[in-house]
Amino acid sequence: MRGKFITFEGIDGAGKSTHIEWVAGRLRARPGIPAVVTTREPGGTPLGEDLRQLLLHRKMHLETEALLMFAARREHIAEVIAPALARGEWVISDRFTDATFAYQGGGRGLPRQRLEVLEDWVQDGLQPDLTLLFDVPLETASERLAGAREPDKFEAESRAFFQRTRDEYLRRAAAAPGRFRVIDATRSIEAIREELGQIIATL
């Protein structure tokens, strides 16, 4: 029996990564799930992690950036995600293709149609069973990121960039309400986890 594929999404500073291991722990405690794999994008494989360093820190042409994102994703699917799902394991990924549509599409302005071509080719129909979109106003995200560490090239982008990125995330959520759950991430950790527990209990 195929496992479930869950993705966590949101702009930088939304706080999504705070909850990934908590959700994984809840799922690992559930009878009938053989294993839960946590992973991330870009990354998730040795090659993907090498590409991550380039993508987060090296300036490059927009189309090169998108192609490298999908190259890392193809390796991720082939080496980690698809085999785990085939074994009946559940996979939780910190970002997946929605992030590319939001950042390279919404934020950077790459035409959506080009990303859709790459999505069809690289994923061969694979989509998450559930996408948790952590949503916060830009002011909240900026406050959380301030002084945390040296920002990567995405975290250092302008307010206008992040507004476009957030808008594209919300557009995609509205277009696929059966897959997305939009989480108000301005609330306390306890309140968010109560909602997350209710959501994953239905899977």
Short description:
With 203 residues, this protein is of the alpha/beta class. The chain is 52% helix and 13% strand.
Describe the fold and architecture.
The chain has 8 helices and 5 strands. The chain has helices at residues 20-28, 46-57, 62-86, 97-107, 112-123, 138-145, 159-175, 189-200; strands at 5-9, 36-40, 90-94, 130-135, 180-184. 52% of the residues lie in helices and 13% in strands. It has a 5-stranded parallel sheet, sandwiched between helices.
Number of helices: 8
Strand order, biggest sheet?
2-3-1-4-5
Instruction: Tell me, rounded to a whole number, the average pLDDT.
Output: 94
Radius of gyration: 16 Å
Specify the helix fraction band: 40-55%
**Ranges with pLDDT <50 over ≥5 residues?**
none
The count of β-strands is 5
Span from first to last CA?
A: 14 Å
Order of helices and strands: EHEHHEHHEHHEH
Structural class: alpha/beta
What percentage of amino acids are in beta strands?
5-15%
Q: What would you call the shape?
A: globular
Largest sheet data: 5 strands, parallel
Q: Which secondary structure elements does this structure contain, and how are they paired or packed?
A:
Blueprint lengths: L4 E5 L10 H9 L7 E5 L5 H12 L4 H25 L3 E5 L2 H11 L4 H12 L6 E6 L2 H8 L13 H17 L4 E5 L4 H12 L3
Parallel strand pairs: 1-3, 1-4, 2-3, 4-5
Helix pairs in contact: 1-8, 2-3, 3-5, 4-7
